[in-house]
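Table 4 source record.
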Amino acid sequence: MSDPSPQTGAMKTQSRDMEVVYDELVAVFGEARLVKIEGRLFLLGGSMADRTEAMEWVMLFLPDEVVGLKR
């Protein structure tokens, strides 16, 4: 897992053929990105292994958060 310094502001990423605008990049797990959109956490992209690693990290460090999944 690489954990970039928290970034804020409107940022864009491509998730499949869609462009997603997010408020904050929380963490990166391989190709998966854990982002905050309007106060809610979402996991964007990544392989099944990347997404599994991200969800394990969330369960350890943010156990009360609900994470939405977007491909």
